[in-house]
Amino acid sequence: MVARQQPFRAIADAAPAMLRVADTDGRCTYLNRGWLDFTGGRPEEESASGWSDAVHPDDRGRVREISERSVAGASSFAIEYRLRRRDGEYRWIVDSGAPWHDAHGRVAGYIDSVVDVSDRRRAEDTLHELGGRLIAAQEEERRDIARELHDDVSQRLALLSVEIEHLELHRGHASDRGERWKALSRAAAGIATDVHRISHRLHPSRLDALGLVAAISGLCQELFSQQSLHVRFTHLAVPHAIPGDVALCLYRIVQEALQNVIKHSGHMEAEVHLEGSVNGLLLRIADPGGGFTPERREGVGLGLLSMRERAHALGGDFVVQTAPGRGTRIGVRIALQPAMSIKKAPVEAAYLSK
Fold first, then answer.
1. Of 313, 301, 308, 314, nearest to 136 (Cα)?
2. What CA–CA distance (Å, rounded) separates 271 from 341?
3. CA within 13 Å, CB half, 312
4. Using CA atoms, how far apart are residues 167 and 187, in angstroms rounded to an integer?
5. What secondary structure, in 3-state letters, does 31-86 show?
6. Domain 206-354: CATH superfamily, name plus number
7. 7 CA to centre of own chain
8. Which of 95-109, 165-179, 330-344 has the highest mean pLDDT?
9. What are the CA-CA distances from residue 46 to residues 56, 116, 303 (Å)?
10. Interatomic CA distance for residues 134 and 137, integer angstroms
C-alpha cells in the first residue's frame, strides 16, 4: 500500500496547486507539500480536522456546511474562502473538491484542489473601482459642460439677442451704430470660440481632420494661450495613417499628463516627444516639477491609473519614473499593424532617459 502511495505523493507534491485528501467523515488524510508550504504547518498538526484552523473564523461555518452537504450527496463543490498563510495573512482561495471512489465504486473520500486567487480578486476590485471612478469622472465632466453651457454660453447668447433687438429698435447715429455692431461681432466671436473649446473637450475634431501630430500640437498651443503652460513638442517619423483608437489613446494620455503638470508639478513647462519606429509608436512626456510617490497619487484620483489602462487596453506598455523633487517621466509604447509603413527610427531600451 505504501509503495503504491509513493508515485501519488511525488506527483501531488510537484503539483502547482495545493491538494488535500479527506475521508468520508471529512477528516484530512493527506496534505501535499504545496499546502504545507502555504500554511507553514506540519502534517501531524493539520491531520484530521486541524487544517480547518487555518480557515478564517468568519468562513469556517460556511465551509463546513458546504463540505458536509457535498459529502452527504457525494457531489462535487467549489467554494471561495480565506485561508491563513504562514506569515499570518489571510488569502482568498478557490477550493474545488470532488469525490474519489474505491475499487468497489463506493465513495471513499474527497480530493480538494486549492488555488490562491487573492491577486486576481485584487485586480478585479481595482478594475471595478476604476470603472466606478471613470463613470463618476464622466458625469462630473458632463455636469461641468452643462453648467458652462447654461450659466455662461446661453446667458451670453440671450444678452447678444437682446442687444441686437435693442439696436434694431433704437436706430441712432451711424458711427454709434457701427461701434455697437463691432462690439456685438466681438461678443459673437467670443461665444463661437468658447463653443469650439467646449466641443473640443468632448472630442478633439482636429484629431480626425488633421491627424495626431497636429492635434497634439494644437493642444500644446491651447494650453499655452489659456493656462501659460510652455510645452516643447517634438516628433519624428510619425506615420500619417494611425488607427483611430491608437491616436485617441495617445492624445488623451498627453492631455491627461499635461493637465497633471498644470495641477501638481509646480512648474509650468513640459516636454512631449512622439516617435514612429519599426515597433510602433513611442510617446514620452516629461516635466521638471516636484514629482510624487505613485502609490499616493493613484489613491486619490484617476491620474496615472486611467492613462495606464488606456495604454494597456491597446496592448501597449506604460512606464512612469518619478520621485518627490525629481520630476516625472512617462513613457508609452503602442504597437501598430504590421502592414503599416513606418520610417525606421532608433529605439533605445531606456526610452525614458532620452
1. 301
2. 26
3. 9
4. 14
5. ECHHHHHHHCCCHHHHCECHHHHHECHHHHHHHHHHHHHHHHHCCCEEEEEEEECC
6. Histidine kinase-like ATPase, C-terminal domain (3.30.565.10)
7. 45
8. 95-109
9. 15, 19, 47
10. 5
Encoded amino acid at 78, one letter = A
* Residue entry with cell 468568519: 58
C-alpha cell at position 297: 497619487
What cell was used for 215?
492635434
Whether residue 223 contacts residue 263, with contact meaning beta carbons closer than 8 Å, is answered with no
pLDDT band at 100 (very low <50, low <70, confident <90, very high): confident
Check residue 251 and report its DSSP letter.
Answer: H
Say how far apart CA 219 and CA 222 lie, in whole Å: 5
Contact between residue 253 and residue 276 where contact means Cβ atoms under 8 Å apart: no
**Half-sphere exposure for 271 (CA within 13 Å, toward CB):** 16
Q: What are the percentages of helix, strand and coil residues in the chain, rounded to 5?
A: 55, 20, 25
Report whether CATH 3.40.50.300 matches the domain 2-116: no
Identify the residue whose cell numbers are 512617462. Answer: 330
Query: Whole-structure pTM over 0.70, yes or no?
Result: no
One-letter identity of residue 99: P
